[in-house]
């Protein structure tokens, strides 16, 4: 069961301290089955902060965000769109892997985080925003977008557009752009078309940086 231990980030903008503190978060039940907390990675001076949904199986084992198949596709799309991943700060709205076992109990199958889990993890995402102070926040997928823009946000209506954050986040999120999660590209019936649309959204975001 969730408890109060480590559920709130410490009052610091030091990413190493935040990462260490997040490893002990017990704010929702996901920590019980996950291998470890997967905190964000990148420079505190990054101009772009990228938010995904949650770590997957590969990320849970490695302790790093976006290192699985979706991460490899994301790296390729970043390169085509003019982003250098090494200069970005990359994280997730939820820091623990939510999954269910297959019928044989071997494979771990991704499950979408619920609103309760997103809300429980939101203080950590806000702490990362305070530490990095990006010029642009890139939101990958509906869960990531709704974690900052609210549960009523509809990705299909606003993907690729420059977005204003809610007033409470005005100082943390100067501009945001939402697009699909790279895993959605991998699942798409026409992967080439989905990938082209994904790269187009990233290029539109890149132009906002001048």
UniProtKB/TrEMBL annotation:
Record-linked Gene3D superfamilies: Uracil-DNA glycosylase-like domain
UniProt entry keywords in alphabetical sequence: 4Fe-4S, DNA damage, DNA repair, Hydrolase, Iron, Iron-sulfur, Metal-binding
GO molecular function: 4 iron, 4 sulfur cluster binding; deaminated base DNA N-glycosylase activity; metal ion binding
Any one biological process term the GO annotation gives: DNA repair
CDD domains: UDG-F4_TTUDGA_SPO1dp_like (cd10030)
A Pfam family this chain is assigned to: UDG
Record has Metal-binding as a keyword: yes
UniProt domain Uracil-DNA glycosylase-like: residue ranges: 39-203
Keyword Acetylation applies: no
Domain of life: Bacteria
Family the entry assigns: Belongs to the uracil-DNA glycosylase (UDG) superfamily. Type 4 (UDGa) family.
Protein name per the record: Type-4 uracil-DNA glycosylase
Organism: Amycolatopsis rifamycinica
């Amino acid at each position: 069961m969730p408890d109060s231990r480590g559920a709130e980030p410490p009052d610091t903008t030091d990413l190493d301290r935040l990462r260490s503190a997040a490893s002990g978060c017990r704010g929702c039940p996901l920590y019980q089955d996950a291998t470890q907390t997967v905190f964000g990675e990148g420079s505190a001076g990054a101009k772009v902060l990228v938010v995904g949904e949650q770590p997957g199986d590969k990320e849970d084992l490695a302790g790093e965000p976006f290192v699985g198949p979706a991460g490899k596709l994301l790296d390729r799309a970043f390169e085509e769109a003019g982003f250098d991943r090494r200069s970005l700060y990359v994280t997730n709205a939820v820091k623990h892997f939510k999954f269910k076992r297959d019928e044989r109990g071997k494979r771990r199958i991704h499950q979408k985080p619920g609103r309760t889990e997103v809300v429980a993890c939101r203080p950590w995402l806000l702490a990362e925003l305070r530490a990095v102070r990006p010029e642009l926040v890139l939101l990958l997928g509906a869960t990531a977008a709704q974690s900052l823009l609210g549960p009523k946000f509809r990705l299909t209506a606003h993907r690729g557009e420059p977005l204003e954050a809610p007033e409470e986040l005005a100082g943390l999120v100067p501009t945001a752009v939402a697009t699909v999660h790279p895993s959605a590209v991998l699942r798409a019936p026409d992967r080439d078309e989905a990938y082209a649309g994904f790269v187009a959204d990233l290029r539109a975001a890149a132009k906002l940086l001048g």
